[in-house]
Design a protein that fits this description.
Layout (H helix, E strand, L loop, with lengths): L2 E2 L2 H7 L5 E4 L2 H14 L5 E4 L11 H12 L5 H7 L15 H13 L5 E5 L7 H16 L3 E5 L3 H6 L3 E6 L2 E5 L24 E5 L2 E5 L6 E5 L2 E6 L2 E5 L3 H8 L4 E5 L2 E4 L3 E8 L2 E6 L6 E4 L1 H11 L3
Parallel strand pairs: 2-5, 2-6, 3-4, 4-5
Antiparallel strand pairs: 1-7, 6-7, 8-9, 10-11, 10-14, 11-12, 13-14, 15-16, 16-17
Helix pairs in contact: 3-4, 4-5
GO molecular function: DNA binding; phosphorelay response regulator activity
Protein name: LytR family transcriptional regulator
Organism: Slackia equolifaciens
C-alpha cells in the first residue's frame, strides 16, 4: 500500500497518474495551489465548488466567452451538446440548478482541451442520469494522455473515477486498493446435496442487531476499514469481513466486483465502460447507485452471467 505524509508528496510521487483523493477542504486547497505552481506550463483546467459562473450571462454567452479565450478546436455549441445543455442555452447562469452549474463547468473546461484537469468533488452534484456525460469526457481526457486530479471526494466517488484512489487519515494519505489480487480470489465451492442453508447478514442499528435477508441487500462496501450493507438506501455497519461475506453471499447471486465491493447481481441495471480500465455498475435502486467494477473482474462477470 502506498502511503504519503502530505498531499503535496502524494501529487509529486504520482505525477504521471490520475489520482482521486478523499480529503479535507484544507487539503483540497493545498492540492489546487500545488497543481497551479507545478503545472503552470501545461494546459490546465480547474473546477472548484465555489465556481458558480457569471450570473448575468446565459449558458451560451458564458461558453462563447471562454471559447474565445481558449482558442481551441472545440466550439461552445459542441460543448453545449456534449453536456446536455441545449435546452438551457438561453438560460441565465444564475437560474441554473447545482447540477446544471456543474455540467456548465465541465463544458467550460472541455473548451481548453486540457492536459491536466483538477476538480473538487466532480460527481457531488451530478445525478446518475447525467453522470455518464461527465465520466465519458473524463475518460476521453485520460485516453488522450491527460491527467485527472480530484479532491474532496467520498471514497466511493473516488473509486468511480478513472485512475487511482486515495484517502486521508490522521494527516497521511493511503492508497485504496482498486483491484482484486490473487490472495483475495475465492474459490466458489459448489452447493452440494439437499441441505437447507439459512443465512442472514447481521448489521448494527443503534443498540439493536438487524438480520437482513440477502435479497434485501443492494451491495456491501468497505470504506476506511469498516464494512457496510446497503439496504433501501441506508448503510448499516456489519462486523463480518468482506471475505466471509463473499463466501456466504456468492450462493445468493452476489459477486465480488471490486476489492471494496460485493454487489447483488440481481440489482445491477447497467454496466458502463468509460476507458479501457474504467468500469462502473449502475444499480436499479431508487438512487441508481454507481459502484466500481475492477478491470480484472469485468470479463469474469460477463462470462459468469452470460453477458455480452
Amino acid at each position: 500500500m502506498s502511503e504519503y505524509d502530505s498531499i503535496e508528496q502524494l501529487l509529486e510521487s504520482e505525477a504521471d497518474k490520475s489520482v482521486h483523493i478523499e480529503c479535507s477542504r484544507e487539503a483540497t486547497e493545498r492540492a489546487m495551489r500545488f497543481v497551479h505552481e507545478r503545472r503552470s506550463g501545461r494546459r490546465c483546467a480547474f473546477f472548484m465548488e465555489s465556481d458558480k459562473g457569471f450570473d448575468r450571462e446565459t449558458v451560451r454567452s458564458y461558453l462563447r466567452f471562454f471559447s474565445r479565450i481558449a482558442g481551441g478546436a472545440i466550439t461552445a455549441e459542441e460543448a453545449i451538446a456534449h453536456f446536455g445543455l441545449k435546452g438551457l442555452a438561453r438560460t441565465r447562469v444564475k437560474l441554473l440548478s447545482a447540477e446544471q452549474r456543474a455540467l456548465l463547468n465541465f463544458a467550460r473546461m472541455s473548451l481548453f482541451e486540457p492536459e491536466v484537469v483538477f476538480c473538487e468533488r466532480p460527481l457531488a452534484d451530478v445525478t446518475p442520469d447525467n453522470r455518464s456525460l461527465v465520466l465519458t469526457w473524463l475518460g476521453q481526457v485520460v485516453e488522450g494522455g491527460g491527467r485527472l486530479i480530484s479532491c474532496g471526494n467520498t471514497l466511493r466517488e473516488a473509486l468511480l473515477l478513472p485512475g487511482s484512489a486515495f484517502y486521508e487519515e490522521d494527516g497521511r494519505y493511503f492508497s485504496a486498493k482498486t483491484a482484486l489480487g490473487s490472495e483475495d480470489e475465492e474459490s466458489d465451492a459448489p452447493y452440494e446435496g439437499d441441505e437447507v442453508r439459512v443465512f442472514k447478514v447481521p448489521a448494527k442499528s443503534d443498540d439493536a442487531t438487524l438480520l437482513f435477508d440477502p435479497r434485501e441487500i443492494d451491495f456491501i462496501e468497505s470504506v476506511n476499514r469498516a464494512n457496510y450493507a446497503s439496504v433501501r438506501g441506508q448503510l448499516y455497519p456489519v462486523s463480518m469481513t468482506l471475505e466471509e461475506l463473499d463466501a456466504e453471499l456468492s450462493r445468493y447471486g452476489f459477486f465480488r466486483c471490486h476489492r471494496s465491493y460485493i454487489v447483488n447481481v440481481q440489482k445491477v441495471a447497467k454496466v458502463e465502460r468509460f476507458t479501457r480500465n474504467s468500469f462502473n455498475l449502475t444499480l436499479s435502486d431508487a438512487a441508481h447507485t454507481s459502484i466500481p467494477l475492477a478491470k480484472g473482474r469485468a470479463e469474469e462477470m460477463r462470462e459468469r452471467y452470460g453477458w455480452r
